[in-house]
Amino acid sequence: MKSLLIFDLDGTLLDTVADLAASTNYALQLCGFPIHETEAYRFFIGNGINKLFERVLPEGEKTQENILKVRKYFLEYYGEHNSDLTIPYPGITSLLLSLQKRGIKLAVASNKYQKGTEKLVQHFFPEITFAAVFGQRENIPTKPDPTIVYDILSVVKVGKDEVLYIGDSGVDMQTAQNSGIQAAGVTWGFRPRTEMEQFSPLYIVDDPSEILAIAIRQ
After folding, report:
1. I need a labelling partner for 5 at 20 to 30 A (CA). Which of 21, 57, 108, 158 fits?
2. Domain with 190 in it: what CATH number?
3. pLDDT at res. 46
4. Within this chain, do residues 167 and 113 fall inside the same structural domain, yes or no?
């Protein structure tokens, strides 16, 4: 049985794409830039919000000044509207409750900024006691750098062979690979199965119940 499961947030625990798209489009409009279809954001998200803003800005406008300007308006809007359209994926809440009931420790490792990560986790999973909730923090490299996983392991002191990392993207599979821990890719998130397959995770699952089966396997 695994002692610790580390979950990505956006695209793994929560379907956040609609709120992220709405908030980014709001900021882009205020700055006079073109907006994007919600579906396009599935491929813009995943490497932190500054990288998101760089990706959505037009060619020739991807300056640090513009990124920071979009960021300012985004944070103001998203802070008030980050749960308007966001929902947990089907079966996720019951999965977390089942894992918790079995004494398996849970953690979140996200490239979403720290305050936003904490707010969403507290809002949508009030019954879950997470051992660690880490998002994008100042002066800490984002995933796929393994620092975020090492920081979780410094809180939850278990061997790497007792850990499973769960995510929906190539970035997540690389993070697990770089950390030296097993990974499970999930197909219900933002990125296609083929992206995760490039990194040869031990598991790719189509339903949260499969994660429970893997976690409690002897």
Report:
1. 21
2. 3.40.50.1000
3. 86
4. yes
* CA Rg value for the chain: 17
Of 52, 81, 110, the domain-final residue: 81
- Give the chain's mean pLDDT: 96
Query: CA–CA distance from 160 to each of 80, 90, 154, 155, 213 (Å)?
Result: 38, 29, 11, 13, 19
pLDDT value, residue 211: 98
Whether 41 and 95 map to the same domain: the answer is no
- pLDDT tens digits, one per residue of 180-199: 999 999 999 999 999 999 99
Shared domain for 24 and 114, answered yes or no, is no
Q: What is the pTM of this model?
A: 0.94
E strands along the chain, which residues?
A: 4-7, 14-15, 87-88, 105-113, 132-136, 163-167, 182-186, 203-205
Domain range for residue 25?
17-81
Low-confidence ranges of the chain (pLDDT < 70): 218
List the strands of the sheet with 132-136, edge to edge.
132-136, 105-113, 4-7, 163-167, 182-186, 203-205
C-alpha span between 12 and 209 (Å, rounded) = 13
Domain boundary among 35, 51, 81: 81
